Amino acid sequence: MGVSSGRSSDESSKRKVGMGTVGKRRGSAGSGNGPAPRYTVGLDIGGTKILGALLDPAGDVVSTVRRSTVHGADGLIAGAARAVRDVVASGGVELSDLAGVGLGIPGIVDHRSGTVKHAVNLGVNDDELPLAGLLSDELGGVPVVVENDLNVAAVGAAHVLERSGADGDHEDLAFLALGTGLASGLVLDGRLRRGASGAAGEIGHVPVDPLGPDCSCGQRGCLERFASGKALEAAWPSRHGKPSPVELFEAARAGDEEAIVVKDRFASATAAAVRLLVLTTDVRHVVLGGGVAQLGTELLDAVQDALREQAKVSPFLGSLKLAERVRLAPTHVPVAAVGAAVLGRRS
Amino acid sequence: MGVSSGRSSDESSKRKVGMGTVGKRRGSAGSGNGPAPRYTVGLDIGGTKILGALLDPAGDVVSTVRRSTVHGADGLIAGAARAVRDVVASGGVELSDLAGVGLGIPGIVDHRSGTVKHAVNLGVNDDELPLAGLLSDELGGVPVVVENDLNVAAVGAAHVLERSGADGDHEDLAFLALGTGLASGLVLDGRLRRGASGAAGEIGHVPVDPLGPDCSCGQRGCLERFASGKALEAAWPSRHGKPSPVELFEAARAGDEEAIVVKDRFASATAAAVRLLVLTTDVRHVVLGGGVAQLGTELLDAVQDALREQAKVSPFLGSLKLAERVRLAPTHVPVAAVGAAVLGRRS
């Protein structure tokens, strides 16, 4: 299962990230009547790396850290604990300054009990792992909360967006993760929407074509079969050692007609995901994230063009201004780690 | 536009509806520290009738009323005012006992300003009508709120369901209205979800078949073309003077093979609407309402069967227990009027 060992690619940095300078401050340590808000740490634990962020009491990112993931339960906990200590040290504070730690994990998470199941990417295969409790013990009792990776990404994107001052209104968005699969996290009216069974935002398995290809979920024609990294890789396998989306967009840009068709179809399917999110939840923003979103503005342009194209035939869709709702996930901060840190405040 | 005049079919009744006996009481007048909660009235204003309900401070339905709708702005306001006065009188209280009045209206509602547009069914065609303000004036200053008809239905269903004690948890549901068209209202984590542009729950216009029939919205293969009263009427026009859904289900019950096919297709499309709602918002309950839902348990059975059928091919769907989430809208109370009265509390 590929244990990553070294610290060779590790880095940590202390920096006051830009958002703080333009963002709204919600308060500062020691002021006000309530208990002083304190620092929190968030970790975004992925299959290959752990990204960490330290948030100060005002909600600004003070320091970030990046570590390789060590697979398996023991490695995971030791690695997470080390990442917390490192990002705290980078930020010039102490573990005892922390109000809490939030973790974002791919897998089935029970946020109430702090347990994780089937986090196959992390080498946690079968048993339920009481991750929050074990990490809290490892950190001398700091409260720890665990959340689904898409949920922390949505919370992080909402936090960054709201503080960017771009929009005077409350936090309201879907984080649309174009990763290997397709799924989303939802923050509605300022609150994380988990759903009755933790399945909110599982739009990848909405069937959209009765004659479409079989899906691994057992259904047919699921949206994920058209709008995901896996779908792109199948339609345009990488030939030159770069990720499939990059090669596809390069070929389309160079005028390859087949590539243009595949790209347009992908953009149209991603636009369908945006439309689906708005027609069900009417989120104010749809934030494109996940591996495929590393394409950046080229992807954004293609999806917005597809949305405008679809709106041409439907005044109803036009009135929803779908293209204007879409944006790219922030890249100047590790947005999922920031979201985990925001949730750590509520621990 | 068919002005209904008479009171011939009108009725009003004073009754303590059953829910109160099993429901949880949230408080009662005069107790507690805050200001005493007071009575509210809700009206569900439809194209042919106005249903009204008086809620007491504990949230129980005290009295209900049913009046014919008078079309056009003036008639609408006078009729609504009369319905409020009548349901209040039926309940043995005074206008001055009201904390507020809530209205549920089909059409484009701005709940912030209390205005209504394009309520064509009510003879309000063009201009923006400041309904809340005008009705409030007519009632001597009682605060009035206006809300979309699906939203009040969802709030009412959540109120009734929560008080029925069937489920210990918070209010969390979609009210799936199988009317002429297809749309839903959402109460998520106990709060009405309107969405950024009031479009939350507009699932009727999610395309689900690229080769499907054209939709009036300009798109093709929208879910509404398969799961709505209009879709049923097109597939099985009524021949014997009863509503098309009733005739269809009767024919299917009698063994008509064509009817069985049409019925199964409709049940499957309605099941797709349930699946769509759960895969996006993960609501705990999906409540079937609207005209077609007057079929009652026969409809419920058909939709649940279709959901179980779909779950057979997908362990993922099976894990979501979709069939168990579906239920019929309560019929012992005018659920939309109750929801309007609940919203009237917040006026």
Automatic annotation (TrEMBL), chains A, B:
Region of interest: Disordered: 1-37
Domain of life: Bacteria
Classification via SUPFAM superfamilies: Actin-like ATPase domain
Alphabetical list of PANTHER family matching this protein: BIFUNCTIONAL UDP-N-ACETYLGLUCOSAMINE 2-EPIMERASE_N-ACETYLMANNOSAMINE KINASE (PTHR18964:SF149), ROK (REPRESSOR, ORF, KINASE) FAMILY (PTHR18964)
Family, similarity comment: Belongs to the ROK (NagC/XylR) family.
Name this polypeptide is given: NagC family transcriptional regulator
Organism: Promicromonospora soli
